[in-house]
Amino acid sequence: MRVYELSRLSRLLTRYRTWLNAIFQAMLIVCSMVMAWMLRFDFGLPYRQLLFASAPVLVFFRMAAIAYFGLLHGWWRYTGINDAVDISKAVATGSAGFFIFMHYVLGVTNFPRSIYVLEALLTAGLLVGVRLFSRVLAESARQDQASWKKVMLIGAGFASQIIIREIKQPGSGYAAVGCVDDDRSKWGIKIHGVPVLGNVDQLPDVVFRYQADEVLIAVPSATGKEMQRFVEICQQAEVKFRTVPALRDLISGQVIVNQIREVNLEDLLGRDPVEIDLESVRQQLENQVVLVTGAAGSIGSELCRQILEYAPARLLCLDQSETGIFYLQLELSKHQNRAQLVFCVADVGDRASMQSLFLEHKPQVVFHAAAYKHVPVMESNVHEAVKNNVFALLSLLEVAEESGCRSFVLISSDKAVNPTSVMGATKRMGELILSCRPANSMRCVTVRFGNILGSSGSVVRVLQEQLRNSQPLTITHPEIKRFFMTTREAVALVLQAFAIDNHGDILVLEMGKPVRILDLARSLIRLSGKSDDQVRIRFTGLRQGEKLIEELFYPTEEIHPTSCEKIKRTRAGLCSWTELQNHLEELRASLALNGAGPIRAKIKEIVPEYSYVSDLLTEESATTQAPEALEQAAGRS
Q: I need a surface site. Which of 130, 316, 469, 534 has the fewest CB within 10 A?
């Protein structure tokens, strides 16, 4: 309300500036008259009737002369020698008119003649003085503003109004110079005094014309494609750019200028982020005891944060990393939302520890996010990959069911589809275990999704680190593509999987088209403020177990809709539970043999689609030895 009143007052002052200016100068003339009278009569006020009668006449002649010489404008911050000369002319003209009218028209012969001179000198001094004082203040303000950043805004809507209003607050450090918007009806209008100068494509020209230091993308509802266009245009303008916070923050009034953030990779997914209504989750998590394994990881920690919003009775955060649990405890303890928090450092594969945990706390819901996920590392540690991703899962399932757990959600990966890595194959075996396992009293659901933007060890983190250290960006292949999703989307999918579907289902989020890593790297280069020719991209060749393009479904899988439009479901049950159990026992026996060969061979029996290095005598594997050829291919693309 206060901001609105100040804005309204500002508009009124602008509208009646000339009248206010005239009234102020008339007051100065009256003051000069009174001061001259007091100086003439030793600081007394005799003959007051003559003083009060002559004052309106003096003001009339003075203001007429001031208006004639163009001195009613309010731009006093530009006062110069010409204004002083014009004031002298106006004072001389007004004095002459006043003297003639008083002496010859009204016949007032007893008016003190010294007053004519004293009043003229004082009036000239005051009129010049206030203008010089205004200029000094304006110059001081301009010096303060010299360090302010001139910003141009993309968008002329609700978000721009809020940002401009906040920019105009004292001490913001910014000065808005204009807006651009594709809506022609907005061209030429002003938003809180800031003009809309044209469409978005004209941004490079207006940035150059107004010498803008930065661009603020004030379109919080922009889609991925629209954001890509804005970024490309800002790059053409060779100007730094940032974007405003989410629309919900703008509406709630929580945004401040310092919250304007850098454009990040989530804005460049190439698709709109998927919004999932999770109200049904609240009913099933409220007042429940929930266990999250792998709680210190990217997905696990976000799961813990979001689960706390649904007021569980107790949240068990389990991870093998003591340091990870320490930092998670520091964070979550501030926002525990009336839930009892329990932090456990343990190995999910340790059956005795898990039995003790379940016996003590009796969790009703388990979100299993603990797994080895790095493809190249697991290729060299086949034994540990199988032990952790398969048999630790199997043991945890048995303990959970024996303890009366109602729901179990497993996090899988798109690498489980036609796997070429041990990690992907173990994830596929996890899907088979949950799909083939009899329902009994515990419902088991699997969630399959792609790469998480910015998760620990992800390609994005690696590329960002290389950029910070001014190193060449390393990419395995110019045509390698991946599905990407945000951490928020991934966790929403996991929570929705817990709430909506049946035992044995695999839920998959629609993630649009896969993103080429080379394009991702180039976007990161631009976001870092550099050009493509300033950063070298080096191709290293596909690593062992790495695929060129990931997939979300097997060709043989039947895809069905769910109650959530953006989520599809399928099943992985291709064999009976008894048959799968026999295969798993043989796989367990192979762990005792020397070397990874017997383990890989048994994995292939369980997952026939699994293909590993000895099977991949293809052109793709040959390229791993020819980085130069890859760079040439990238140049052609």
A: 469
Task: Please state, in angstroms and as integers, the Cα–Cα distance from residue 256 to each residue in 163, 192, 252, 486, following that order.
Answer: 8, 17, 11, 25
Residue with tokens 């964070």: 331
pLDDT tens per residue across span 264-275: 555 555 555 566
Across the range 20-24, mean pLDDT stands at 83
User: pLDDT at residue 305 above 50?
Assistant: yes
Q: How far apart are the first and last CA of the chain?
A: 56
Crossing angle of the two packed helices 81-100 and 113-145, in degrees rounded to 10: 160
Tokens of 465: 């680190």
CATH of range 149-263; options 3.40.50.2000, 3.10.520.10, 3.40.50.300, 3.40.50.720: 3.40.50.720
Q: Are 370 and 430 in contact (CB under 8 A)?
A: no
Ramachandran category for residue 45: left, alpha or beta (phi over 0 → left; psi -120 to 50 → alpha): beta
Written as one letter, the residue type at 121 is: L
80 phi/psi in degrees, rounded to 5? -145, -165
State which fold the 286-298+306-318+346-636 domain adopts: Rossmann fold (3.40.50)
What angle do helix axes 81-100 and 48-68 make, rounded to 10 degrees? Answer: 130
Strand 473-475 to strand 515-516: parallel, antiparallel, or no bridges (unpaired)? unpaired
Closest by CA to 607, choosing from 392, 342, 384, 430, is 430
pLDDT (average), residues 337-364: 93
Q: Which residues belong to CATH 3.40.50.720 in the chain?
A: 149-263, 286-298+306-318+346-636
At residue 565, what is the residue type? E
C-alpha 508/C-alpha 573 separation (Å) is: 16
How far CA 424 is from CA of 228, 309, 374, 509, 610, in Å, comes to 32, 32, 10, 18, 8
Mean pLDDT of 352-361: 96
Percentage of the chain exceeding pLDDT 90 = 30
Q: Contact at 8 Å (CB) between 281 and 496? A: yes
Q: Residues for the chain: how many in total? A: 637
